[in-house]
């Protein structure tokens, strides 16, 4: 039986955690002017895709800054429409949550909006990693993300469960939010897309 090198596992784990923490801090810093949240988000997914395909780089912050500058204008093509839709959803949810209307019709509308928001978030978590792998327009990329999520329900369910788990971790240890609030969900979305695409490739080989 092959002996497990625990030291190597710990070292790789520590490197991964520190890399994700630096990525999250970089995303927060570059998102401080609110309008730059779009290129910052695009850059984070670009780096995650790069790590997925080519392995980790040494200087996360420097690469983040370079990629942010390079993709600044192009990032708004996909990110701006998604940001507008997200803001509309958030405003709707805040309004609906503030209302105490017991009528069945209102309750159906409220939970329909909640459900659509969950679908939107999943589509976004699939769409951004897909954006780094395919050359499609905004609508096509987003719809392909949703289709990929629906085509692989087990992976999507695993993603949702992981996101819920992260939510409770953030509630219990709020300090973790500063280091993993964005990078962890983005990494989960990137892994979900990679797994789904790999399953598609295996299916087509048969």
What is the string of helix and strand elements?
Answer: HHHHHHHH
* Backbone structural class: mainly alpha
Radius of gyration: 19 Å
Give the tally of structural domains. 1
Strand percentage lies at: under 5%
Helix content estimate: over 70%
Q: What best-fitting shape do the alpha-carbon axes yield?
A: globular
Instruction: Give the rounded overall mean pLDDT.
Output: 88
Please give the count of helices: 8
Structural description of this entry:
The protein is mostly helical and 206 residues long. 83% of the residues lie in helices and 0% in strands. It has eight helices and no strands. The chain has helices at 6-30, 37-54, 60-98, 104-131, 138-151, 153-172, 177-180, 183-205. Helix 2 (37-54) packs across helix 8, helix 4 (104-131) crosses helix 5 and helix 6 packs antiparallel against helix 8. It is globular. The two termini are 33 Å apart.
How does the SSE layout of this entry go?
Layout: H1 6-30, H2 37-54, H3 60-98, H4 104-131, H5 138-151, H6 153-172, H7 177-180, H8 183-205
Give short descriptive properties of this protein:
206 residues; mainly alpha
Short description:
With 206 residues, the protein is mostly helical. 83% of the residues lie in helices and 0% in strands.
